[in-house]
């Protein structure tokens, strides 16, 4: 292959484009001001775990939404039946539907007919199902209409929340829909979201009701509601005016008392209706109700038009927030905070420093190893690695993606794994050079033989990572994005850029053999095939015993074993706080004096006097709404207690997960692992053969059980970051097996008559250098993060180091012996080890006369 000027130009333009896209992230502010805004703003964003802020997942109250919809429908139907002079015994509404009881069986058909006539939407599918049984008529919503109501409520809630946050003055809030019935709100820079929670969770549904008195009609139903002092009011259930007609609301002060009030203005229709109502009911008390609480119930003294005043025992902030919510509009139903993650700005900046330091050190170790192992060729690999990192940041910037702390971990892992393709290529070129081939031929055949392996190994890893993106959330999804982009860019740099640079280097010595670096220990060990398969029985038995022991550790939570589930899976609250000059015992006593006796306190760093602690609070209720209320109150109580104990005390991180969300995380984790294993099984079946796929899948299962045992043995917290580690391990482990299997497949085609045992030993030996080198580079890339990364990344980095060792050794000691057992079975059945290749099929066709 000659160097193509056009190809070189295209590759150079792609790299230049990547550099230009990544550049705005590092330009000084004064330089950026001189650039167009569209280019200046082409940057990736830092996640809340790096820059500090709050992440709130709000879930709409479906039961309240359906209950209030059915209640409004029931009131409307009651009025229609009254107008049609049809009397009924009773009408009751719940979240499930409406039950109407007619006075007799004879009245039921007429009542049912009127109801159906008013519920029918011409030209559309029925929204309600109406059925009768004797005097009982049941009205229920169709499943399609329920979905429509929920979608509409979510969209209205999104719009209202945006209005509320825009008026609150918060910087760059992000509001997006999450799943079927949830809304994700991200608030950069907010380290105490209590006031924001109230702003977002308050429904602010205002209505006006007459206080029941002698003018109340006999058929009007009444309800009892209380004000904040506990005084109860008997009100007519039917509202006479809704808060939807409020066009403006502002904080004001009563001229006589000087107390905060809310001055509101009604729209034209509301003003006309309100004027008529108040004019016709002079002397009646009109209650103003907010979220089923009476704010005030003044007696109407005169006709009121478009303007009014709401008084109550408000503080200035309360009146201001209430006015803001009335301006933005009422939520269709209450929003419950089912997940909250808050990181203080100091902890975020510490995470950035840690990520940069451990990442740069890991990259430096990888570069040093490549230069030591391959000399000039290693320098080319390092150049390609640098280009790869730049391209990753360029793609992140173009997509406007968010870089999280797990994302930095993913980037470091990508650096280690990206070297794999270069090692594979270098080892293939070395093999061809040892056979006496010229530089040009060695380069050409080395790349051709390595290409399929690189493609297979990257695609299998991409399958596992894509499932992490689908089922992950928040920072873990950032990890999946970084790894996915890194796999694609490393495929480009290793196959295209590296080859182009190598081609330029060897153009002067096209017919001469390449000078090889000095031999290392592995070269001398692998000159002759190693009898690795001799230990196949010991490998399989040892692996089975270790996996069985790991399963026992995981399933036996007693004796300090079992998985140490984090808040993501167990639910509850985790608070990371700093309390100077204190010990764990003193913090426990402080919490106990505040009535918080269920808290578990753990020093960060393993020291009893570390000044930094994790406080874990269990889920206190099975109801998400109750859990939300309890956790908010408890966190604020802890904040108050430590602030009183020491002026410099602070809460740096809060993670709260409700029971429903934690259960969903567990289900999604199992599903992601099963789908990843299934996807890899299908891919390997299609690319290789069924026994290759089965051997790899069984080995992956054994690798995963050992890694779970590692979690249980060391008590490492099992959280969403740990799930990222497991799925990354699946991808990494299968990557290694694909390389070995690819060489086995190649040798099957080259020497089909060779004994199976010898062929496997030859293939394992041929790939041993690549396997050891790749594992070592990935290991040293992650080592600084595992040692110095702290507890925030411990659930990822430490299990990954263990997984690299297990995944690497299992390729030779488990996957290959399993392939041997399955391959022997195929031979006994008279089946071939591989399906015919395209060339073999063509040769057979050519023999047909």
Descriptive key words:
single chain; 849 residues; alpha+beta; 8-stranded antiparallel sheet; 4-stranded antiparallel sheet; 25 strands; 59% helix
SSE order and pairing:
Blueprint: H1 5-22, H2 29-32, H3 37-40, E1 45-46, H4 48-51, E2 53-60, H5 62-83, E3 88-94, E4 97-102, H6 108-119, E5 128-133, E6 136-141, H7 143-168, E7 174-178, E8 182-188, H8 194-201, E9 206-210, E10 222-226, E11 232-236, E12 241-242, E13 246-253, E14 260-266, H9 268-280, E15 286-290, E16 293-296, E17 307-310, H10 316-328, E18 335-343, H11 345-374, H12 376-399, E19 402-403, H13 405-434, H14 439-471, H15 475-506, H16 521-525, H17 536-555, E20 564-565, H18 567-570, E21 572-578, H19 584-593, E22 600-603, E23 612-617, H20 624-645, E24 650-657, H21 659-687, H22 690-714, E25 717-718, H23 720-750, H24 756-788, H25 791-828, H26 838-847
Parallel strand pairs: 1-19, 20-25
Antiparallel strand pairs: 2-8, 2-18, 3-4, 4-6, 5-6, 7-8, 9-12, 9-15, 10-11, 13-14, 14-17, 15-16, 18-24, 21-23, 21-24, 22-23
Helix pairs in contact: 1-12, 7-10, 11-12, 11-13, 11-24, 12-13, 12-15, 13-14, 13-15, 13-24, 14-15, 14-21, 14-23, 17-22, 17-25, 21-22, 21-23, 22-23, 22-25, 23-24, 23-25, 24-25
Q: Could you describe the 3D structure shown?
A:
It is built from 26 helices and 25 strands. The protein is α+β, with helices and mostly antiparallel strands. The two termini are 37 Å apart. The model has no long low-confidence stretch (mean pLDDT 82).
- Quick one: biggest sheet? 8 strands, antiparallel
Amino- and carboxy-terminal Cα gap: 37 Å
Q: Could you tell me the mean pLDDT?
A: 82
Strand sequence of the main sheet, in spatial order? 7-8-2-18-24-21-23-22
Tally the helices: what do you get? 26
| Spatial extent as radius of gyration | 34 Å
Shape: elongated
Structure summary, number of beta strands: 25
Question: Which structural class do the helices and strands define?
Answer: alpha+beta
Percentage of residues in strands: 15-25%
Unreliably modeled segments: none
Share of helical residues: 55-70%
């Amino acid at each position: 292959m000659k160097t193509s000027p056009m190809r070189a130009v295209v590759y150079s333009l792609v790299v230049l484009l990547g550099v230009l896209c990544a550049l705005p992230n590092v330009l000084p502010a004064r330089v950026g001001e001189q650039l167009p805004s569209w280019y200046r703003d082409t940057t990736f964003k830092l996640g809340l775990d790096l820059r500090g802020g709050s992440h709130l997942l709000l879930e709409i109250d479906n039961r309240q939404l359906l209950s209030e919809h059915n209640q409004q429908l029931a009131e409307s139907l009651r009025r229609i039946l009254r107008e049609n002079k049809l009397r009924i015994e009773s009408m009751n509404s719940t979240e499930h539907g409406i039950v109407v009881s007619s006075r007799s069986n004879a009245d039921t058909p007429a009542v049912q007919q009127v109801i159906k006539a008013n519920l029918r939407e011409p030209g559309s599918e029925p929204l309600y199902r109406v059925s009768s049984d004797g005097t009982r008529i049941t009205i229920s919503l169709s499943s399609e209409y329920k979905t429509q109501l929920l979608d509409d409520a979510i969209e209205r809630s999104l719009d209202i929340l945006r209005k509320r946050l825009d008026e609150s003055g918060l910087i760059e809030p992000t509001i997006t829909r999450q799943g079927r019935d949830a809304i994700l709100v991200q608030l950069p820079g907010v380290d105490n979201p209590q006031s924001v929670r109230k702003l977002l969770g308050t429904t602010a549904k205002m209505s006006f009701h007459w206080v029941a008195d002698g003018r109340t009609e006999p058929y009007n139903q009444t309800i009892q509601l209380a004000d904040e002092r506990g005084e109860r009011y008997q009100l007519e259930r039917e509202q006479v005016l809704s808060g939807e007609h409020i066009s403006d609301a502002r904080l004001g002060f009563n001229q006589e008392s000087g107390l905060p009030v809310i001055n509101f203005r009604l729209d034209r229709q509301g003003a006309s209706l309100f004027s008529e109502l108040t004019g016709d009911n002079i002397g009646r008390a009109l209650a103003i109700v907010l979220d089923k609480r009476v704010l005030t119930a003044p007696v109407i003294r005169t006709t009121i038009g478009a303007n009014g005043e709401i008084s109550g025992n408000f503080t200035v902030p309360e009146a201001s927030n209430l006015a803001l919510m009335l301006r933005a509009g009422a939520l269709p139903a209450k929003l419950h905070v089912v997940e909250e993650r808050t990181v203080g700005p100091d902890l975020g900046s510490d995470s950035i420093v840690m990520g940069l330091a451990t990442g740069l050190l890991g990259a430096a170790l990888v570069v040093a190893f490549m230069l030591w192992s391959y000399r000039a060729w290693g320098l080319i690999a390092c150049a390609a690695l640098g280009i790869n990192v730049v391209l990753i940041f360029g793609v992140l910037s173009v997509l406007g993606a968010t870089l999280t702390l797990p994302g930095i971990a993913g980037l470091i892992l990508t650096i280690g794994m990206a070297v794999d393709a270069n090692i594979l290529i270098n080892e293939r070129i070395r093999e061809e050079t040892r056979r006496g081939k010229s530089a040009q031929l060695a380069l050409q055949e080395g790349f051709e033989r390595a290409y399929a392996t690189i493609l297979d190994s990257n695609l299998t890893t991409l399958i596992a990572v894509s499932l992490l993106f689908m089922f992950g959330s928040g920072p873990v999804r950032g990890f999946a994005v970084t790894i996915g982009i890194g796999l694609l860019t490393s495929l480009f740099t290793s196959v295209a850029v590296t080859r182009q640079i190598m081609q330029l280097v060897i153009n002067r010595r096209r017919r001469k053999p390449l000078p090889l670096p000095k031999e290392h220990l592995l070269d001398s060990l692998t000159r002759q095939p190693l009898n690795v398969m001799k230990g196949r029985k010991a490998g399989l038995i040892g692996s089975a015993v270790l996996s069985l022991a790991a399963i026992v550790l995981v399933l036996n939570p007693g004796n300090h074993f079992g998985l140490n589930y984090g808040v993501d899976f167990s639910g509850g609250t985790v608070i990371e706080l700093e309390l100077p000059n204190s010990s764990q015992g003193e913090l426990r006593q402080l919490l106990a004096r505040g009535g918080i006796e269920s808290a578990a306190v753990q020093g960060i760093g393993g020291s009893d006097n570390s000044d930094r602690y994790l406080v874990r609070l269990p889920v206190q209720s099975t109801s998400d709404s109750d859990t939300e209320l309890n956790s908010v109150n408890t966190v604020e109580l802890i904040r108050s207690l430590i602030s009183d104990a020491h002026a410099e005390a602070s809460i740096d991180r809060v993670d709260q997960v409700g029971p429903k969300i934690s259960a969903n995380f567990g289900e999604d984790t199992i599903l992601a692992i099963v789908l990843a294993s299934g996807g890899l099984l299908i891919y390997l079946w299609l690319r290789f053969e069924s026994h290759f796929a089965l051997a790899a899948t069984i080995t992956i299962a054994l690798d995963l059980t050992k890694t779970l045992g590692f979690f249980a043995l060391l008590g490492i917290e099992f959280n969403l970051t740990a799930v990222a580690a497991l799925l990354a391990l699946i991808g990494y482990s299968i990557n290694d097996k694909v390389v070995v299997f690819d060489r086995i497949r190649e040798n099957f085609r080259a020497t089909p008559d060779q004994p199976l045992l010898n062929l496997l030993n030859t293939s394992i030996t041929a790939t041993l250098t690549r396997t050891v080198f790749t594992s070592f580079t990935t290991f040293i890339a992650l080592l600084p993060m595992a040692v110095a990364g702290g507890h925030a990344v411990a659930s990822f980095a430490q299990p990954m180091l263990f997984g690299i060792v297990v995944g690497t050794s299992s390729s030779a000691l488990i996957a290959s012996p399993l392939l041997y057992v399955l391959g022997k079975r195929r031979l006994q059945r008279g089946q071939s080890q591989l399906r015919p290749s395209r060339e073999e099929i063509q040769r057979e066709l050519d023999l047909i006369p």
